[in-house]
Write a structure and sequence with these properties.
The structure is a single chain. This protein is an alpha+beta fold. It has a single domain (4-68), classed as Metal Transport, Frataxin, Chain A, CATH 3.30.920. The protein has three helices and three strands. It has helices spanning 9-18, 55-66, 70-78, and strands spanning 22-27, 30-36, 42-48. Strands 1-2-3 form a three-stranded antiparallel β-sheet. The longest helix is centred in the last third of the chain and has 12 residues, at 55-66. The radius of gyration is 12 Å and the shape is globular. It starts with 8 loop residues before the first helix and ends with a helix.
Amino acid sequence: MGNLSEVSARDALRVFQKAGFSIMSQRGSHIKMRRALATGKVETIIVPNHKHIKEGTLKKGILRVIGMSTKEFLSLLKK
């Protein structure tokens, strides 16, 4: 799997958990995840619980917010 358009919510959640996020809550089809940074700040992301997450949502919405590159995401996905 080397393409962001093929990523499911289940796979994305697994990657974000490897990156230090934990599931906080779920409302409908949206899952809230958080992680604490060493600076004391907290990052929050919302992951849509869909079979396939749209590439733009993942790349420009979630990955950009947390400062993770596509390459990093795909490497964690393969592990």
